[in-house]
TrEMBL record:
Signal peptide: none annotated. The lineage of its organism: Bacteria, Bacillati, Actinomycetota, Actinomycetes, Micrococcales. Transmembrane segments: none annotated. GO terms for cellular component: cytosol. This is Rrf2 family transcriptional regulator. The keyword Cell cycle does not apply. Pfam families: Rrf2. It comes from the Bacteria. It comes from Microbacterium paludicola. The keyword DNA-binding applies. GO terms for molecular function: DNA binding; DNA-binding transcription factor activity. Keywords: DNA-binding. PANTHER family: HTH-TYPE TRANSCRIPTIONAL REGULATOR ISCR, WINGED HELIX-TURN-HELIX TRANSCRIPTIONAL REGULATOR, RRF2 FAMILY.
Length: 152
């Protein structure tokens, strides 16, 4: 599975907003600087996040961006879906919309299982978890195995 730069930057930007001590709008420039995200690229990401209802944007001298709802109610999956669409695609289709025959028929269950596991991980982590630096035990247990950190 590949996480796009757009998805990575979006999650980092939303985590930055969640980490703010006060509920004041944060400028795109500050988010870009704090998270080392190209500003022009970030602007497009912020637009997608606003359209998805994850952030609210405010214009003016005291303008900027803030979360549209509590960070504890926004999952990493929500953010990725907002900027990249569904979490798992196979040939530009949802796994549940595919059909395989013959020896490849069981492959459909593999793709659906992959989607279920990706969802289990990304829907269990909230933006509040990231901002607080604490992750659910499901995540920490998966990363305790040294093999998780290496590419076979």
């Amino acid at each position: 599975m590949r996480i796009s730069a757009r998805a990575d930057y979006a999650v980092r930007a939303v985590a930055q907003l969640a980490a703010q001590a006060v509920d004041e709008p944060v400028s795109a420039e500050l988010i870009a600087a704090e998270q080392d995200i190209p500003h022009r690229f970030l602007e497009g990401i912020l637009t997608a996040l606003r359209r998805a209802g994850i952030i609210i944007s405010q214009r003016g001298a005291r303008g900027g961006h803030r979360l549209a709802r509590p960070a504890s109610e926004i999952t990493v999956a929500d953010v990725i879906r907002a900027v990249d669409g569904p979490l798992v695609w196979v040939r530009d289709a949802r796994p549940s919309d595919l059909e395989f025959t013959g020896a490849a028929a069981p492959l459909l269950q593999v793709w659906v299982a992959l989607r279920a596991n990706v969802r289990a991980v990304l829907e269990s982590v909230t933006v509040a978890d990231l901002a607080a630096g604490r992750l659910p035990s499901l995540i920490t247990s998966l990363t305790e195995d040294d093999a998780a950190w290496t590419q076979p």
